[in-house]
Design a protein that fits this description.
The strands form three sheets. A seven-stranded mixed β-sheet has the order 11-12-14-13-15-17-16, with helices on both faces. It folds into two domains: about 5-110, Immunoglobulin-like (Sandwich); about 115-370, Aminopeptidase. It is an alpha+beta fold and about 375 residues long. It is globular, with a radius of gyration of 20 Å. The chain is built from eight helices and 17 strands. Bound molecules: zinc ion.
Length: about 375
């Protein structure tokens, strides 16, 4: 029986180039109107009981080839539980792995997918809870709404937004964890936060790219996290409408949630290079990092990106733009595609469950500093 490979579904991405018995050769498809690619998500059918070898032949040309070192793809036979393949290696620009399925079909993905269907379900569930508002801040180029959930009635303006880079699906798993925590009527931290702050939450900044199976860009190949200085309706309406809403509300604290392809750790990136950097901002950012270290051993400060010298920040990136624009505390949270190497899990690697738990812990750390914002 010939193995059938397909990816024509929500967040799917792959192109089979050769299928010979149990040897499957594949390519990841570029984001539309862009050279970026790394996200993959596909189904293999006709694989029951067969030891199938998969090769992603163009892995070496992807956006972050360092992401394939010590990386293991995610697989699922029920599209609910995603485990890591046991046997995977990257050499000569090709990612190879093998898998023997128990059933007829198996799904593989770069990380456990977070579909637009799940997004819609999550938004509907959270919006139905007491005290939660749902609005659209604008429309995407493909005509999707930019969902924003609001809750709380306190004076501090808190913005949480995720998935500017659509292939970083862990970012929306984080959002689901944060939203569940914030709407948990029995959670004392959530109750206190909702009294002290007003939350504006955009669970998915890039729904078009998410549905299209993109890694890094929207429907016209634009990296949204390089648009925050000058967003336009033609190229980046997603950023334009969110930034306008931020201008209307003001911002005291902002977190932009991402995933990192190469670094096997959870870390934060700040705004050290902005021209108007204040001691108050720097001190509060440091306080937040220490609060998160105290909350969870899945977070650390040793590994991460280097800091930019003062005045050299790229103000097209959201964290820098917001810290400069509002004088607020802004940060970019990065979770791994691989695992947290300090606390590894051989079966699941970094996972949806760990992303959701981190969402809850990040809110706990926010509660530790919110009076000082
Ligand atoms: Zn990112």
């Amino acid at each position: 029986m010939t193995i059938l490979i397909s990816a024509a579904f929500d967040s799917g991405n792959i192109r089979p180039t050769a299928i010979a018995d149990t040897q499957v050769t594949l390519e990841i498809v570029r984001d539309r109107e862009s050279d970026f690619y790394q996200w993959f998500h596909f189904r293999a059918l006709g694989v029951r009981g067969r030891a199938v070898s998969y090769a992603i032949a163009n892995a070496g040309g992807s956006a972050f080839p360092g992401g394939w070192e010590n990386y293991r793809p995610c697989w699922s036979e029920d599209r609910v539980t995603w485990r890591r393949v046991a046997d995977s290696h990257y050499a000569d620009g090709v990612l190879r792995f093998t898998h023997e399925a128990k059933g007829d079909a198996v799904w593989f993905a770069y990380f456990a997918p977070y579909s637009m269907e799940r997004h819609d379900d999550c938004v509907a569930r959270i919006a139905a809870r007491p005290g939660v508002g749902l609005a659209s801040l604008g429309q995407t180029l493909d005509g999707r709404e930019m969902d924003c959930l609001t809750l709380g009635d306190g004076p501090k303006q808190v913005w949480l937004y995720a998935r500017q880079h659509p292939g970083e699906s862990m970012a929306e798993w984080w959002m689901e964890g944060a939203l569940e925590a914030l709407t948990d009527a029995a959670d004392p931290i959530a109750r206190s936060l909702r009294h002290k702050a007003t939350f504006h939450i955009v669970p998915n900044m890039n729904p078009d790219g998410s549905f299209r199976g993109h890694l890094r860009t929207n429907a016209v190949g634009v990296n949204l996290n390089r648009e925050w200085h000058q967003p336009t309706a033609d190229r980046s309406p997603e950023v334009l409408c969110v930034r306008n809403a931020m201008d209307a509300s003001g911002v005291d604290f902002a977190m932009d949630v991402h995933g990192d392809e190469a670094i096997a750790a959870v870390f934060l990136a700040g705004f050290e290079g902005i021209p108007s950097l204040s001691e108050r901002q720097s001190a509060l950012y440091a306080r937040y990092q220490d609060a998160l270290v105290a909350r969870t051993p899945d977070f650390q400060k040793a590994k991460g990106y280097g800091t930019t010298p003062k005045g050299r920040a790229n103000l097209a990136m959201s964290t820098n733009q917001l810290a400069e624009r509002f004088g607020c505390v802004a940060m970019t949270l990065e979770m791994p595609f691989k695992d947290n190497d300090d606390l590894p899990d051989a079966e699941f690697g970094w996972s949806p469950e760990r992303s959701m738990r981190l969402g809850r812990d990040c809110l706990g750390a926010l509660h530790d500093i919110i009076e000082e914002l």
